[in-house]
Automatic annotation (TrEMBL):
<feature type="transmembrane region" description="Helical">
    <location>
        <begin position="241"/>
        <end position="259"/>
    </location>
</feature>
<dbReference type="InterPro" id="IPR003594">
    <property type="entry name" value="HATPase_dom"/>
</dbReference>
<dbReference type="GO" id="GO:0000155">
    <property type="term" value="F:phosphorelay sensor kinase activity"/>
</dbReference>
<dbReference type="Pfam" id="PF02518">
    <property type="entry name" value="HATPase_c"/>
</dbReference>
<feature type="transmembrane region" description="Helical">
    <location>
        <begin position="202"/>
        <end position="220"/>
    </location>
</feature>
<feature type="transmembrane region" description="Helical">
    <location>
        <begin position="265"/>
        <end position="285"/>
    </location>
</feature>
<dbReference type="InterPro" id="IPR004358">
    <property type="entry name" value="Sig_transdc_His_kin-like_C"/>
</dbReference>
<dbReference type="InterPro" id="IPR003018">
    <property type="entry name" value="GAF"/>
</dbReference>
<feature type="transmembrane region" description="Helical">
    <location>
        <begin position="6"/>
        <end position="30"/>
    </location>
</feature>
<dbReference type="InterPro" id="IPR014265">
    <property type="entry name" value="XrtA/PrsK"/>
</dbReference>
<dbReference type="InterPro" id="IPR005467">
    <property type="entry name" value="His_kinase_dom"/>
</dbReference>
<keyword id="KW-0418">Kinase</keyword>
<keyword id="KW-1133">Transmembrane helix</keyword>
<dbReference type="Pfam" id="PF01590">
    <property type="entry name" value="GAF"/>
</dbReference>
<protein>
    <recommendedName>
        <fullName>histidine kinase</fullName>
        <ecNumber>2.7.13.3</ecNumber>
    </recommendedName>
</protein>
<feature type="domain" description="Histidine kinase">
    <location>
        <begin position="491"/>
        <end position="698"/>
    </location>
</feature>
<feature type="transmembrane region" description="Helical">
    <location>
        <begin position="42"/>
        <end position="63"/>
    </location>
</feature>
Amino acid sequence: MGQAGIWTTIAFGFYLSGAIALATVAFVLWPRRQRLGIAATATLTALLLTAIWSITIAAGSLGALGAPWGSLAESARNLGWLFVIYRLFESDGRHDTLAPIRPVIVSLGFVELTHLGIDVGLAWLALEGRVMHVVFEFNVLFRLLVTVGGLVLVHNLYVGGSREARGALRWPATGLAVLWAFDLNLYTIAYLSSGWPAELGALRGLAAIALAVFVGLSVAHNRENLRIRPSRAVTFQTFSLLVIGVYLVGMVAVAQWLSYAGGNFARLVELAFLTLASAMALVVLPSRRLRAWLRVVLTKHFFQHRYDYREEWLRFTRTIGGAGEGAPPLGERVVRSLGDLFESPAGLLLSPGEQGELTLAARWNWPAIEVPATALPLESQLALERTGYIVDLDDLREGCLPAEDMVEPEMPAWLREDARAWAVIPLVHYERLVGVVVLARPQYVRKFDWEDFDLLRVVGQQLASYLSENASQLALAESSRFEDFHRRIAFVMHDIKNLASQFSLLARNAELHADKPEFRADMLVTLRNSSEKLNALIARLGRYGNAGIEGGGADRLEALRTADVLDAVLERFRGAAQVSATEVQDLEITASRHSLEQVLVHLVQNAVDAGEPGSPVLVAVTAEGLNARFEVVDSGCGMSPDFVRNRLFKPFVSTKSGGFGIGAFEARELVRAMRGRLEVESREGLGSRFIVHIPLAAAAGIYQTLTRNDQKVA
């Protein structure tokens, strides 16, 4: 197969592939044609006409069809796309305001039809020699006229469109621009060379394939956001391959030139050159410094921005959010997230100590540097906090002065004298310095520019917020421990106050009734109960430290009889005639006897205090489903719904003079610790009802099963 046969095969393959791609896109777009708007029918028709044109040219390349059929198909193709452009103008609403558009399209259509008629007419004539050359130039000029006019229309279609319309016009306009731009170059070369460029014409089917791809993209869901642009990684790798290719081509060219020189000496020089060039390639190309330099050059000259912000932000998020078992501490992750921006291999984090001085908080791959106890003087801290100045230590060593409106903070000797120290980045959160990062020198060092400073300030603010949040969490945990301690002391004070009141009452009564045997017997009972309460208080105080207030501090749960518990509570108020039991069902429950008695005594005492002297307080215990229901009812002043909802069970809020405000809160928590619940019903002026639900012993197994299942789910 000769060279002509090879190009004929290539042309047939590309044109046939273009026809298949165009037909496929047309059939795929048919059920989605509504996305093309009013230009849908015209676009699908133009795609099919272009597919027919590709098939016709492919058949003509094999000699199956004559030249007039190819010219007819190309004219139909151009007319179809001119009508598509008009419909796109109409869909954008500009066919009424841009009056020159319609005459231009009509004129181009007339030129295409005229050319078609003349071309078909001349095909029937037997022309030779000079006349055929004139006919060829005539055909090419007509094609150039339509092609240039089509490109002008495509340009006006896209550039004149609104911002909202450009998203839909971008891809079809790009496809038509590729098709007609290729034809422009093809026909220009044909006119200048006075002959058909077979090699370039064989590649014409690629323009048809590109047209099919771009028209297909025009109906994508995210067509407004689609961009065809390589990533920085792909660009860098492509450029690296290009450099390697240029190197190899240059090496082969020099070797070939030396071979032409001939002679034994030339052969020796050729071998020496190949050896030296190969050795340089093995040493230079794997160099990190060279790759860093290439990346800087590419970023500077091939991209509007140096950084691929999407990749940088994803990497930053992965680094700073890499918590969990085995992950480095937060301080190291902070330093690394900044170091990755500049490929810095190491760094330090300095953070304020107890007295506000900056001290070493974390190291990342930098164990050798010696950091003093006070890493930065107070003046430098204040300057960094006030200005947020990013210090380039190389400029500082070289004596380069900062801008006139910026005062460079003074850096200590340990930073200026260590040649590996490169940059100092302050981390400022709400005008407060929360840390300083010192980065080590990377493999390839360059000067900071505006984009570096902008990125460092944004990342620095984000890191400062992470450090501030972490410090707040630590402070909150410490505060929570102190709060737990204070609550424990408050509960202790509350119980001690009650015991002190009993002892005071006992002392006053002893002065009057010490000689009575009955009083002495009651006094012994009271002292014994008080001693038991003090011991229980000490035991519960120890459990508070482990379970916390939410644990309730309840004693061990055991099986009890409700009648025994209620009798013990009523015995405590034997001297108060207004306290009486209305109904007592003897039920078996699972609870802490001491905690339950403490809750009921507290509720009864509050009921006595809330009412007028002598007003009745009724106590009852009944069965309710799986629970025993204890009720304490009074006819006192009652409480408002707002008080019950927002203040009754809030610790350290009390309506009593000198009260601690934790009795109701402690009662509710003790009931919860016994797997029960405490409810309140109250009306102002009528009284209140406190209801304590405690599980029956028969339901204890059910509650334990539910608790275990909840723990497994959690």
